[in-house]
Amino acid sequence: MKVSFNWLKDYIDIKIPLPKLVDLLTTRSFEVATVEKVGSDYVMDIEVLPNRAHDCLSHIGVAREISALLETKLKIKETKVKEDKKSSVKNYLAIKIEEPELCRRYVGRVILGVKVGPSPKWLKDRLEAIGQKSINNIVDAANYAMFEYGQPLHVFDLDKIESENSKPRISKKIIVRKAKKGEKIITLDTETYDLNENVLVIADERELLAIAGIKGGRKAEIDKNTKNIILESANFEPANIRRTSRALGLRTESSLRFEHEISSRLAEVAIERLAELIAAVAGGKIAKGKIDEYIKKPIPYFIAIRPCEVEKILGTEIQEKEIVEIFKRLGFEAKKISPLEIIFKTAKGLLGKLYKYGASVSFDAPNLFDCSSFVSFCFSRAGIQLHRLSVEQFIYDGVAADKTELLPGDLVFSKGKKPYFYKETPKGVGHVGIYLGNGKVVHASSSRGVVIEPLAKSLAFKEWRGAKRILTERNDLLLTKIPPERLDLRIKEDLIEEIARIHGYENIPSKLPLASLAVPKRNDLLFWERMAKDALSGAGFDEIYNYSFVGEKDIENAGFNPAKIASLLNPVSDEKKFLRPALLINLIKNVGNNFRFFDEARMFEIGKIFRKNAEIGEKRMLAGVIAHKTTNRKGREFYELKGVIDALFDGLGIAEHWYAESPEYVRGNDFEPRSGEAPRGFWKEGGSAEIKVGDKHVGYLGEITPFVLEKYDIKTPVAGFEIDFEALASLAEEEQVYYPISKYPAIVRDLAILLPLEIRVEEALNVIENVGGPLLQDADLFDMYEGENLPGGMKSLAFRLIFQSKERTLSDKEVGDITAKIINAIRQEGWEVR
Amino acid sequence: MNIAELKKIAFSEIEKAKNPEDLEKARKTYLGRKGELTAVLRSLAERPAEEKIRVGKEANRLKSELETLFATKKIAFEKELLAVAAKKERIDITAPGKKVSQGSSHPLSRLRKEAEDIFGSLGFEIIEGPEVETEYYNFDALNIPAEHPAREMWDTFWLGKKFLMRTHTSPVQIRYMEKHNPPFRIIAPGRVFRHEATDASHEIQFNQLEGLMVGKDVSLADLKGILEQFLRRLMGNKIEIRFKPSYFPFVEPGVEVDMLWNGRWLEMLGAGMVHPNVLRAGGLNPNEWQGFAFGVGIDRLAMLKYKIDDIRLFYSGDLRFLRQF
Hints:
The complex is a heterodimer of chains A (834) and B (325).
Chain A lengths: L1 E3 H4 L9 H11 L2 E8 L2 E7 L5 H4 L2 H12 L12 E6 L4 E5 L5 E10 L8 H9 L7 H13 L3 E5 L14 E7 L5 E3 L5 E3 L5 E4 L4 E4 L3 E2 L12 E8 L1 H11 L4 H7 L6 H17 L2 E4 L2 E4 L6 E5 L1 H8 L5 H10 L3 E5 L1 H11 L4 E2 L12 E2 L1 H11 L8 H7 L2 E3 L9 E4 L16 E7 L2 E6 L3 E6 L9 E6 L7 E6 L9 H12 L20 H15 L3 E2 L5 E2 L1 H6 L20 E2 L4 H11 L5 E13 L3 E13 L7 H16 L5 E4 L22 E11 L2 E9 L1 H6 L6 E7 H7 L15 E10 L4 H12 L3 E10 L8 E10 L8 H17 L3 E2 L1
Parallel strand pairs in A: 4-15, 5-8, 19-20, 28-31
Antiparallel strand pairs in A: 1-3, 2-3, 6-14, 6-15, 6-16, 7-14, 8-11, 9-10, 11-12, 12-13, 17-27, 18-27, 21-26, 22-23, 22-26, 23-24, 24-25, 29-30, 31-32, 32-36, 33-34, 34-35, 35-36, 37-39, 37-40, 38-39
Helix pairs in contact in A: 5-6, 6-9, 7-8, 10-15, 11-15, 12-13, 16-19, 16-21, 22-23
Chain B lengths: L2 H14 L3 H12 L4 H8 L5 H40 L18 H15 L3 E2 L5 E3 H4 L24 E3 L5 H9 L4 E10 L11 E11 L4 H16 L4 E6 L5 E11 L2 E11 L1 H6 L8 E8 H9 L12 H4 L3
Parallel strand pairs in B: 1-4
Antiparallel strand pairs in B: 2-3, 4-5, 5-9, 6-7, 7-8, 8-9
Helix pairs in contact in B: 1-2, 1-4, 2-4, 5-10
């Protein structure tokens, strides 16, 4: 909010230089975003915190805050309204509130014979300094009073207001009601709005005059011929104003203040100021009296606090004397009280008051009560806030007390007529009273109102449920009366914040908490995530963080059905509309983008993917890609990536993983790319595999089909993998077991086999290992060749066989015998040993 | 031959040696197993006592002199060899080293790891929560009811009536409190989302690190201490922090934490004492337990620490940027 320094000085003497004030405001109250010189004035842009919008969206509000900071008294001039004794407001104005829940107060005044014209210079200057356009003296006065007090105000041209019968009548009626479906209003800025039954409006007997609390209509607009006017100063329910303002896309200085809720006390103060101002700048006679429909008059609010509670939260001692001093600076009345005394005095003063189920503590008290509002009200007078419902009081407030050891002031609970069955109260709790001592209880009985009776004989407490002790410490409390405009102060923690900031956060010394020296439990998933990241960056992979979103095109390109993918209701763009169903989609895009600057890309990402089934599920995946701008060898990327996965799984201590070349890759599970759903696959057929550990599926590895790649302008093969990282982490094994190194030498034999192209390496290995026996320690493929010098349809595989025993040195003959057996088995397969 | 003569001849022969082989030959002639000086030393036993002492002394002195001389001369020859080799096999130390294929780790991962390790060393456990959240955990349970104007502080991506992309990591507070008994201290790092226009300092997704410590008397002063430790260890000992009044519905008192960085106060994080309503929503009794909570932007810390001027780079997948880390 823009605040003029000159304007502030009307209400408070500021003896410190402006930069000091700015600093003080920033560290004690609100951030001052900018300070701007406007003519002879300085204008601060103050970022009033949302919880202080109740009381600080005004110059007086900010001045009040500064007065607390500087310990300087406010000097607000008393408003003096000179009424014209000969005319009475009642002859000109009647107000009817049809929606008491939405309009808590409506104050109206009438001024006759004003002269509309330009505003005087001082008024213009003040408004223009804070960025407001001057319109005419009447409208400017209303705006001025709003920026002064924070109370939105409105002025209608009395003569433009119509009555039911078309005959002009001097007395006008203003109605606060909900709009009818299809009703329209043209606002002051000549925009037309279609309204509905949720919108609160101000109307005369025929037409709409304003959207309540948001914007005035053209109908009763002040113009240069306006003579007689009606001043409106009202208080509207915040949530409704907010909803309407959002629905209509219409945010005004008025709606801003109402939607944050302001004190209804202001309505009266501000209308007096407005009347005074208009009389000063536009003349006219102020009709005697005002109409004040005050539907919901709140009762004063109290919060009790103990200095030790302040110390406990802040971690530093603040003397009671200083607390009282801080409260005084903030304008809170504070006194030491005995809570029990106040509670009992309040309770006894309410004997005989009538019962109303669901009575409100703020508005029905002190005339109507139900059992829990009675208890809440009595405690609230001592500044102690209890929950609203008896069952909540039973569960949340205070500590449990034993029936045989009740103390005065304990809450006593029974089943009651309308019990609540919460999970903590399977037998139902529905009635509450206050134990007075000497076996007596005071409570609001549904049939007799507030009564005192012996607890043992009370029918209401026959079905006993327990007792709670609220006043665990019997010592005195500091009872603080909260000023009506401070709607942000409702619990003692709110007061502690006030104490802390006025005391100064910089005066709270930092310390380290006292806590047990416990080693934090390891987060296994994160532990394995770090291991995997290290393994992959060790293998030359760059780590990527992509958006969690992809576009509809991407979804289709990758072969997903968009209907099955979770999407945002309010995306920022079409490209980021869907929640990514696979990490690879964005990684493939990364390949295309980086090929503009690099010839090769190895990238990975660990992150969440999302799928929509009954609900939206999410899963952490690990995906990676390898691509070269120019590539020559068939399967180069695939084999590189496979080697990386092997190393990764090794690093994670997963030994038993294998690759299934199966058509199952089109099956997938809920979280992986499925090509079966699309006309073309995502994974290249004959170039991809399922990764398994034992019989558990953990992911896929393979080349991406060129049809997907070409969408991203990639012309060479890209191999990728996408692994269910949560499954992987659950299989990972940290322990390493050492196998003793054999003392006896190993004997190595190389073996090249010529076999048909379609035979897979694993099948050849199986043949070797089946007859190799325990002395064949290892058989590694070290060369694979398909090419010109071989007979058609054939390839060559070269294996290195390693023989070793743990017990003895092997003889050449032994090894020769095993090798011969292997060669024999190979020949039986119809393959050739070269 | 007496010792003096032997010395003269030996010295001149060493002097004349042109290469290591000559030198070795000379060494053998005098000091070898059958060498002349060795022979003298061996013959000592047969000599009369008086002569034994005199000749023995001289012979031993000569032996040591010769050994030193041989060693010096040998080093001189080796140095010559090295000088020749240095010329022939010279390495151009300014030529680039052979590239080791090592991938980069994302700057946000690096920062997160550092932050996690600092808090880990302070006894904080690392907890994670879902990125798709319910309205309840993201708002209601955090003391931000539906009609509360404060909801506008978080521009939200909605997925449906009750589901959304979490706008902060704070829901983890509730999820954790529901299942664990105090005292505890946790951090919850993770990705969060905001529906907003992007620019150099705003993104629709970023990373936060939530902290929560609950105990019998965990206080605001403790919060200040922990955050001071954290920021100093992460950003350097020179930094200072200050608390400013602020407002977040889930804490009371609520503060904004500024960090003094290169002479300027920068807003770093929001924090405060956990609001009683939030403790209650987590199933804890506020009369019994209290604690602090904070949330810090990982991206912002990384931007300061690595002098990155555009948040969007983190999510660009641009290897020109990432390979610098």
